Amino acid sequence: MATILIIDEDVQTQGTLQTILQAQGYIIVTANLEKLAFAGVENLHPHLIIYTWMSENVDALSTIKHLKTQSDLTSAFYLLLTQPELLKSQFSRLEPQIDDWIFAPIDPDELNRRVSRGLKNNQSYSPQSDSSDPQLQQALSDLNLARKRLIKSEKFSTLGQMISGITHEINNPVSVVKGNVSHAADYTQDLIDLIELYGEEYSDPSPVIQERIEEIDLEFLFEDLPQVIESMKSGAERIRQLVESLRNIYRVDDSEEKFVDLHRVLDDIILILQSQLKGKKGRAITLVKDYGKLPEVKCYPGQLNQVFMNLLNNAIDALENRRVETSSEEPTIWIKTEVASSEHSNHPTTPQVIIRIKDNGTGIPENIKPKIFEPFFSTKPLGTATGFGLNICHQFVVETHQGQLQCISQPGEGTEIIISLPLTQ
User: Fold this and answer.
1) Residue 77: CB partners within 8 Å, gap ≥ 6?
2) Which CATH superfamily is 3-132 part of?
3) What class does CATH assign to 257-422?
4) What is the pTM of this model?
5) What is residue 322's predicted lDDT score, i.e. its pLDDT?
6) In CA terms, which of 65, 117, 146, 162 is 20 to 30 Å from 155?
């Protein structure tokens, strides 16, 4: 049976870890690093070490290096429990010293999965020594996976319910404005016609009326007032479209598998991103759509919504520098869809829906292209991204939908992401 050493200053966290892992049958030993209280750790040779790092005041790098100098702890698999911000601040220095990481608060299923994977990667640990029934272990693994998916589904459902409530509350007053502005336009035109008729019948107004006409610039008012009302009508319609798109993207039932129109999904997301495409400064981004004839695709709409949102956001970010350049090349995003047979897919004989999202931004350097789908990897400035966007895209496309996610990029020539989804799941 595997032996796990937990090094944590917080008694409550230590107890939580111990309870979760003991339930899996592991031998657990705890230690207090601050006082170097390693009683009973000598000659232990743990297969895996969980080290908790929750404070910037603690030098985690020096601590882990010190642990590895002890012969009994050298061959262990090192799993770091920390916060995303802390790990990001020291990731480049810590990565060579740790084998894996997990973020607080502790998720029991995720912890068990990381520990199980760590033990499999540790050559000093032989799972054959465990007396557990392999079929039981597989059943537990399947159950944990199903539970994890259920939790994700429930989280998305909760978000969908919240968005649905918000959009409903916005839609009510917008519908009132949109419905009444049409009447206001008709009433205004009637009043303008009446005033013009008065002007024809009484062409010689008194000095007081003539002075007032000049003061309010009646001729300009007649010309501008209908345009103002038309702008109000367009604004109300724009809000209605945004609310509808938001509701489509975060529908409560989008965590379930069903047939959807991918073009409508893309259009809803593009509408939500319009302000980012226009930009606050510099040139707007040109969006070119080349939609082929697609059948409805059986998929998890909520997941694909997130994939397209992440990829389009990445393309917009990649074009930020070009927006303020004096280059004659306009910052552009191309979206192309088609049905074809993909030679690189997991199902080469199955017709594929291909979605290409391409930009003419700065491109991706060759040395980092192999890392872009890894968790926690980001080329954006510290604190502006989590580093999980493309990793989530890869998980949703490849693992959930048995599709393919490819990246074609050259520095200075832009990036193209190709999504291939099998029509038959």
Assistant:
1) 47, 48, 49, 99, 100, 118, 119, 121, 122, 125
2) Response regulator (3.40.50.2300)
3) alpha beta
4) 0.49
5) 66
6) 117
